[in-house]
Amino acid sequence: MRFLLGLIVGCALTIVAAYTIDNRASVVGVDATNTRPMVNWDIVSQNWQQFSDRVRGEWRRLSSS
Predict the structure, then answer these.
(1) Which one of 30, 31, 46, 60 is at 20 to 30 Å from 24 when CA atoms are compared?
(2) What are the tens digits of pLDDT across the range 19-35?
(3) Do residues 22 and 32 make contact, with C-beta atoms less than 8 angstroms apart?
(4) What is the end-to-end Cα distance of the chain in Å, rounded?
């Protein structure tokens, strides 16, 4: 159980850190043309939506049987 909790917390911290670093440049006022974001959040959002839709569909299929 501790391993699973540590895995979840570690993933969450990694995502939060990447998001913070990506958005720090706009807050500090660094020239945005020289800095590239670590993560393309639009693609991450799209992939997450597709994944969650697929999981919901599979759950509905399994629960209706």
Answers:
(1) 46
(2) 887 777 665 555 555 55
(3) no
(4) 31
